[in-house]
Amino acid sequence: MKIAVVGLGYVGLPLAIQFARANVTVLGLDIDAAKVDSINQGRSYIKHIGSEAIEEVVKQCKLSASTDFNRVREVEAVIICVPTPLSKNREPDISFILETGRTIAPHLSNGALVVLESTTYPGTTDEDLRAVLEQGSNMQAGVDFHLAFSPEREDPANEQSKVKLIPKVVGGYTPACLQRAMMLYGKTIDKVVPVSSCRVAEASKLLENIFRSVNIALVNELKIVYGAMGIDIWEVIEAAKTKPFGFMPFYPGPGLGGHCIPIDPFYLTWKAREYGQHTRFIELAGEINTRMPEHVVRAVADALNTRCKAINGSKILILGLAYKPNVDDERESPSYALMKLLAERGAEVAYYDPYVPVIKPTREHPQFAGKKSVEWNRATIAAFDLVLIATNHSSVNYHELGDWARCIVDTRNAMAGVEIGQEKVWKA
Description:
five-stranded parallel β-sheet
């Protein structure tokens, strides 16, 4: 069997590798020629995916990559793993999905399977994507070609998160489409979970991410409330999670990051309006999480004030640009918001991140493009008036940080267990 995976990023690349390991011939398709060249040379461009994993399946001729989308005619199935961002007005942007559909449609063979994995609102697969595929191919979904949705469940840098072992939800446009998609994923995934429609599968992914967004908002709000009472939210969570039933720990932070939690809930709020429904709970969680960088900046101001300094004119180091520990993915990272807010208040802002040596151009924060991570040494760290821990990478030596830094604002409880004068560390 030969399949194509469109979009070779944090979702598409590990999926392509897993299929290749299962003896399926995989053609990776991407508009980024640099990614294509890297794969064909057996080199990884994602920190937590080793080059040896790619090299192994490339040498076995089970994985190759191309920028030529005409080659879709060679495959029996196409899996779409492209971005689904928000527009400047915080509305769903499914343009990457639709453009991919238009591009592959003329080359689909009769009986081919198309599966969308990109997170999106219910109705995208059986309405929007189906329309462009049918128009471009002159074929009918469910009759001439198969169509399905199967949400990605990637958790980068989580050693327990393996593509093969994570149950795969699948919804088909028709029962025949579902069976075809289940057969495909059954070749490489241990457990495939069928649902009654593409829309149920799309909705299940949104529920997973909304669940996290709402609970993170809850602990973020409690952090502020308990902080005003002189209670450490981290100690509270540690105590609460000893309950063996009815509780799941979530942890506060400086804001939400990544390509899922800050974005996906708003796909549902937007779609709900079409049905005259209002998602107040989801929107409130979004407001709380979005305001967290401002809370952190106030904590920075308070910490500097105790040293008779203002944010204006201070040298501040952001520790961690990636949105979560031990990855090089800085999409939607709250560190960008923190850098922007501090710079607007007159601070001289730099960052340190061993996983992100240089900031790549982004649509939201083009002013930071090209900025480089500082070096990790005593002289460099001691030169800053304050270090703000935004991401708790495990590779950072927090004992050195405690020894070198003048003042630390810790949003991740990273300094817990480090013996240091508490007058130096502020929790935010």
